[in-house]
């Protein structure tokens, strides 16, 4: 029986993990070796990532992995859109901006006014979000861009530090809003119109590509020998969707965490007047697939509220389950995008401004947010069925939100669809099994055989509008 071991480095907006995956007998066992916090660092009114601190934690996790025997490969995934600029010597130039940084205020509107929505969307098929890489680059000074040799997305930057090879993995390239999903290359005309040098962008590589051996420096630091750097789907959502335990047709997914990504899998990008009007996004998936989806604010609102409340999440959700449905919000309202201790007040204010009563307790506010997320998910699902020409019978909820029974039941009730919850570690499982070289059908079968899933049947089917 062949056994292989792989390391997945999963960087999230609030935490990171280094995990060991053992593939044996058609099953995957995942063990978390190291957890560490992550988050934005405010400096002089701006927000940055502590990328060097993350690198230190990654090296520590890899040192721990070296005691487990031979490790075949290592791969990194993270959130999308953010990047580091490196110079000709390979050194990082400046800090890595956080996608919630105030420096991006108004940039998207300026670019859209200059180029038109139709021109941008027809070339990229990506929904308009104020933190897309396109707008971050447009906010950079011309002097900074002249000094830079390469732009590397966060996982690509860490792969570069691990083995010295600079590429952009396709699933993450597709989130930038300057990748053309119809040609499979960079949207050169779009970049040229904004005076962004095409030379900044590395070659595009596929998930599963072998980038080579660890650098001698990393080998000395970690004691890992004979280990390769192999690209997973470096966008965390792409790795999670690869691990959706689905079979056949007629399913959609919700990758539920800080962000909630609601989508379907298609064989080709769908770029049309309707998909533009609905602000849908076409992101590259594994195995030549396209992820037609829409971003929803997700559990971020509750996470920010709980920074104030400091309550146990399991207790909070249990209390919310005992609260009747009441007021709802539009979770995608831009007021909820920035961090801040006033998040509970923002939820209350939104309810009052829309003519509803204000939720008062943490349980009431949490129920309000979960109801709103379920309603928004159901609305997007209806749109995806129409635009994608698919009938959806089953919703697969993966990621952290798959553990929230109340949320899963609310999604089933709001959509009238059967919800299958799990696995919670879909991103890690997708990352590890892509490194192991499994094709998509076999990968999903391995996920089904390696974890327990929970099913929620709809009690009602009442798709309403979020306030």
From TrEMBL:
Carbohydrate kinase FGGY N-terminal domain location: 7-241
Q: Which InterPro entries match?
A: ATPase_NBD, FGGY_C, FGGY_Carb_Kinase, FGGY_N, Rhamnulokinase
Asked whether the UniProt record includes Protein biosynthesis among its keywords, one would answer no
Show where the Carbohydrate kinase FGGY C-terminal domain sits.
252-436
Q: Which UniProt keywords apply?
A: ATP-binding, Kinase, Nucleotide-binding, Rhamnose metabolism, Transferase
Q: Which family does it belong to?
A: Belongs to the FGGY kinase family.
Q: What is this protein called?
A: Rhamnulokinase
């Amino acid at each position: 029986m062949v056994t292989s071991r792989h390391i997945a480095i999963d960087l999230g907006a609030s935490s990171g993990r280094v995990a060991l995956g053992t593939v044996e007998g058609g099953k995957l066992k995942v063990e978390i070796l190291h957890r560490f916090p992550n988050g934005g660092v405010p400096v002089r009114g701006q927000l940055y990532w502590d990328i060097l601190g993350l690198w230190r934690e990654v090296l520590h996790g890899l040192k721990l992995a070296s005691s487990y025997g031979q490790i075949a490969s290592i791969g990194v995934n993270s959130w999308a859109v953010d990047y580091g600029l490196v110079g000709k010597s390979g050194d990082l130039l400046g800090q890595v901006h956080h996608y919630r940084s105030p420096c991006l205020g108004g940039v998207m509107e300026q670019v859209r006014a200059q180029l038109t929505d139709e021109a941008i969307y027809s070339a990229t098929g990506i929904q308009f979000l104020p933190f897309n890489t396109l707008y971050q680059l447009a906010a950079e000074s011309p002097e900074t861009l002249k000094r830079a040799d390469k732009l590397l997305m966060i996982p690509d930057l860490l792969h570069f530090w691990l083995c010295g090879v600079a590429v952009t993995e396709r699933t993450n390239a597709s989130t930038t809003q300057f990748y053309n999903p119809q040609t499979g290359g960079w949207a050169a005309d779009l970049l040229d119109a904004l005076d962004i040098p095409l030379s900044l962008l590395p070659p595009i590589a596929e998930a599963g590509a072998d980038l080579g051996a660890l650098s001698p420096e990393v080998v000395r630091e970690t004691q890992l020998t004979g280990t390769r750097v192999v690209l997973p789907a470096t966008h965390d959502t792409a790795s999670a969707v690869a691990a959706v335990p689905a079979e056949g047709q007629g399913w959609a997914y919700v990758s539920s965490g800080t962000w909630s990504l609601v989508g379907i899998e298609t064989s080709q990008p769908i770029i049309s007047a309707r998909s533009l009007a609905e602000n849908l996004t076409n992101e590259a998936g594994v195995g030549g697939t396209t992820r037609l989806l829409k971003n929803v604010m997700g559990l971020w609102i509750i996470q920010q509220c709980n920074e104030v409340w400091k309550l146990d999440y399991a207790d909070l959700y249990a209390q919310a389950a005992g609260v009747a449905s009441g007021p709802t919000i539009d979770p995608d309202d831009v007021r909820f995008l920035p961090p801040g201790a006033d998040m509970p007040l923002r939820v209350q204010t939104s309810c009052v401004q829309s003519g509803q009563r204000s939720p008062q307790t943490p349980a009431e506010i949490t129920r309000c947010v979960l109801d709103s997320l379920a309603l928004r998910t159901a609305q997007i699902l209806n749109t995806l069925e129409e635009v994608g020409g698919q009938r959806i019978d089953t919703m697969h909820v993966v990621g952290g939100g798959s553990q929230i029974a109340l949320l899963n039941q609310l999604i089933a009730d709001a959509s009238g669809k059967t919800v299958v919850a799990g696995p919670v570690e879909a991103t890690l499982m997708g990352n590890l099994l892509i490194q192991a070289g499994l094709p998509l059908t076999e990968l999903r079968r391995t996920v089904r055989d390696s974890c327990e899933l929970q099913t929620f049947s709809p009690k009602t089917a009442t798709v309403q509008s979020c306030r």
